[in-house]
Amino acid sequence: MAGYRRQNTDGPNSEDKALDLFAEMMIEKLETISKDWKKPWFTEGSLQWPRNLSGREYNGMNALMLMLHCEKEGYTIPRFCTFDCVQRLNKPGKNGEELPRVSVLKGEKSFPVMLTTFTCIHKETKEKIKYDDYKNLSEDEKKEYNVYPKMQVFRVFNVAQTNLKEARPELWEKLEKENGRPFVHEGEMFSFEPVERMIRDNLWICPINVKHQDDAFYSISKNEITVPEKVQFKDGEAFYGTLFHEMGHSTGAEGVLNRFQPTSFGSKEYSDEELVAELCGALISQRYGMAKHIKEDSCPYLKSWLDNLKESPQYIKTVLMDVKKASSMITQKIDQIARDIEREKTENQERTETPKEKVYYASVAYLQMVDDTNRLDALKDKGDYNGLLTLAKEYYDGNGMDEQYTYASPLQNRGDDLLIEDQHFAVVYNGSVGGTYDVMLKYTEQEVRDHIRRYGVDRASEDVKALAREMAAEQFAEMTRHKMPVFEMPNGDVLHVNYNRDRDSLDVGTMTNAGMTVKHHYPYDHNMTLDANLQGVNEQLNDLEEYREEQQEAEYSGGMRR
Q1: How many CB atoms lie within 10 A of CB 115?
Q2: Predicted pLDDT of residue 184
Q3: Residues in contact with 452: Cβ distance below 8 Å, sequence separation at least 6, in sequence order
Q4: N or C: where does the chain have the smaller number of CB atoms within 10 Å of the terminal CB?
Q5: What is the spatial distance between Cα 83 and Cα 131, in angstroms, rounded to a whole number?
């Protein structure tokens, strides 16, 4: 392998060593492509996007190197863990039993991943604050601090470098299943719906023009992407891979990630930008289960990339940082569109299929800045919504439903956004007033009905009260199928009764040809049964003088006649 001219005379630190390794791996990959540029960047159908053991995705820079590492070492499950993470697997089981010990196999070597940390120091007082606290400052307050980024290196092991398969066979089987391809190709003209929606509805940061012509390019002056029609490519994957490449370019525009100015486009320096776009396209294609071949227009840059890498490993650091930012911007947008599509499909399915039982959402934890939402904010900013949901569940204290904060919809306030939900929980974010998270536990309608029967609705939300009124209406309708309830008053009057759902009352009156003429309204008490409510109304009616006077008069008259 070609040597490097190192500038640091004090010897290599951990970051230098990591960059040396990354440069070597990238040189090896580029030399392979140089010999056969029709080979894909990554082996077809091989790996998903790398994640840590808890399921959190690595950023684009680390993901790229970890995939190259997996291919080189033959790892089939792209899941990684630190030594400390391995040790945390050795906690006692659910019932306190000792489980087989998980450990890194003897002789296995770790692989570096790089994480940027920030030191924030006040310009005058020299006081240090946490970066999470710095992010919560106002723009004027932020100007009072100097922020120093620092790249830190962590060492990770692939799960195949541990005895996890033998010590935790159920977890290993789960990881194997999760490594299945995320999408199944349907013929040669495979279609990826989120990107099709993005093109159709103009949802990207610039217009994407699909035209019947031969060139794919991003125009800086017009700030727009142009690509040939999909039918002009050999398959759907080639179309999307080319589009991802051009989308990578578009993130570098002024006012976005500011990687280049219009004057630099097409110049010698632009070869760096071309490598960023190529790696970005390859990464994103791999993430969504597609193979990405090097764009033919990029082939002339191969020698320049190799020369730069052999000259200085620091070159790969600059490129990978740009790839990280660009790929993150693109995947977050695609994932958001994918979630919107899935939500629409679910709603349409619910409308066309047999109606499913309605779900209610009960707030179990309402978190604001004062509750320290930094960890949740970090996961949201990364787009790691599964990790966010897992963390949010930890705030649930196990208490039952609070009917005062139980709703038919998780979205109750202006600005609410349902970030993610599973079978049991949902997390709602509101960006106003510093940002809040509402952790909600899901209940079926039947569970809410049972709760109403047990606890009533004295302090319930309007949605729960509406369900209680529906229950009362159903019970009254069932009763009237057999016999219409009437009250025979002491004075001989016959009064009919009906449940008024709008007023939530039992209405009492006399029946005429035009219907019932209501004379009295009695609030319905949902803490009692229907029979008990009717009995209560009957007792109140008997206490009314208008239904007693005639009876008393009749008794008096009768006494006189005797």
Answers
A1: 13
A2: 42
A3: 403, 460, 464, 467, 468, 471, 526
A4: C
A5: 26
Q: Which residue has the tokens 């939300």?
A: 461
Q: Which run of H or of E encompasses 158?
A: strand 145-158
User: CA of 196: how far to CAs of 182, 199, 254, in Å?
Assistant: 17, 5, 26
Each as own residue / partner, the long-range contacts of residues 479-485 (CB below 8 Å, 24 or more positions apart, any chain) are 479/530, 485/534
3-state SS assignment for residue 366: strand
Rounded distance between C-alpha atoms, residue 62 and residue 152, angstroms: 12
Identify the DSSP state of 356. P
* Cβ-contact 342, 350 below 8 angstroms: no
Within 8 A by CB and 6+ apart from 166, the residues are 100
Cα–Cα–Cα angle for 262, 26, 61, nearest 5°?
A: 65
Burial 132-145 (b: 16+ CB within 10 A, else e): eebebeeeeeeeeb
Amino acid at 177: K
- Any bridge partners for residue 486, and if so which? 496
Which region among 14-28, 125-139, 159-173 has the lowest average model confidence (pLDDT)?
14-28
Burial 457-494 (b: 16+ CB within 10 A, else e): beebbebbbebbbebbeeebeeeeeeeebebebeeeee
Buried residues in 306-344 as b, exposed as e (16+ CB within 10 A): bebbbebbbbbbebbbbbbbbbbbbbebbeebbeeeeee
Residue type, 199: I
Is residue 48 classed as helix, strand or coil in its secondary structure? coil
For the chain, give the number of residues: 562
Nearest CA to 329 among 388, 290, 283? 283
Instruction: State the Cα–Cα distance between residues 108 and 85, nearest whole angstrom.
Output: 16
pLDDT digits (tens, 9 = 90+) for 451-482: 998 888 988 999 999 999 999 999 898 888 77
CA gap 518, 510 in Å, rounded: 7
**Structure-token match 């047999």, residue found:** 354
Distance CA 501, CA 468 (A): 10
Residues in CB range of 489: below 8 A, 6 or more apart:
495, 541, 542, 547
51-52 and 79-81: which strand pairing?
Answer: parallel
**What secondary structure does DSSP assign to 265-331, as a single string?**
TTSTTHHHHHHHHHHHHHHHHHHTT---BPPGGGGGGHHHHHHHHHH-THHHHHHHHHHHHHHHHHH
- For the segment 310-358, what is each residue's pLDDT rounded down to a tens digit? 777 677 778 878 888 888 899 889 989 988 988 888 888 767 665 667 8
